[in-house]
Fold this sequence. Notes:
By secondary structure, the protein is mainly α.
Amino acid sequence: MDxxxxxxxxxxxxxxxxxxxxxARWKLLISLFICFFMLLAxxxxxLAVLLPNQIAALDPAHKVENxxxxxxxxxxxxxxxxxxxxxxxxxxxxxxxxxxxxxxxGSIIGAVALASVAYMPTFWTITAVWVVAAIALxxxxxxxxxxxxxxxxxxxxxxxxxxxxxxxxxxxTVGMIVAGRLADNMPLAYGVFAAAIAICCIAFVILxxxxxxxxxxxxxxxxxxxxxxxxIDPKAYPDFWWAFAGRFTIYMGYQAIVTYLLxxxxxxxxxxxxxxxIVIGTVSAITxxxxxxxxxxxxxxxxxVKRRKPFVFAASLIMxxxxxxxxxxxxxxxxxxxxxxxxxxxxxxxxIDMALMTQVLPxxxxxxxxxxxxxxxxxxxxxxxxxxxxxxxxxYFDTDYRVLFIAAIVFVFAGSFFVLxxxxxx
Length: 426
């Protein structure tokens, strides 16, 4: 799930990809909602519930450090994969279009690897197989994300982003509920998520066929030019980097809590393992309702008033307020309050964030996949740094989870101010 001095309509038009209209637009909107719903259900169910349970079962005494290490290793591969896969999808020539081959191959390979994680007996075998799944899924994600820039005109991207944001946040919530219910049967839990992502992505490309890219001209490949293409000049495109910084810091705060949510319920709130697996579903259900409402309303309202920045700013402040609640109320009621507020703030943020991102991409390059892939690293890099930072803070402060909430508040509030200098988007 950025920043640039103009819109991304130009790449879509220049490459001969028509914008969707009428019934086709609604079909694409619903398809995007379902795909991102399943993708985030997978990510959140696996990262917040299934993997923490597996890691804790292997070595309870070192679960925090081991989980942080696993996320550190896998997130490095995810971060590298996303922009590279996005760039190659921009260059893909096929009868099925530029994005379809990546969506199909990534979802199938990712599903097979994900289903295999349940059968891995050691920390390093679990990590290795999850790395394969993460690489495949992160190769697929930028192609799927770029569909918004490819097929929607700028004035409709707030609505499209709202559908995507609602799907992502709702999916993440449902994913944690399902994973919590199935955590006592790992093969079934992983198998459900694996089958779901493969089926949804294949159905997506069948129902929403891409325009053939086979006859389009392609610049001769040069490794040096390809590598240079990942550098976006901050002087020429300052808005791109302001948006990158805002997204990065907000996710640093958000990820620090989400990564260790199961352990927070166990060690900070004081719940047993079985109870925590159920309560994480209840927390997610509260977030689900708030996220769904906030995402749809924010996306549509943003298009109506033709503003992005005020929504992102307000959403960040609400997320920061959500993180204060468990500090004041370190009990289940406090976590439920956190769940409601984080749902409102994160839902609004996700729905507008993608629309903002598509409007700060470098103009007329025809490389929206690569550029959106770079912006996705603003999410992936926190997945590398945040768990390690959190593990070190917990180690230094004797497993006092209050320090995580404080650090998260600092990051989220700081991130809200990075959108203010963006000039190309109101």
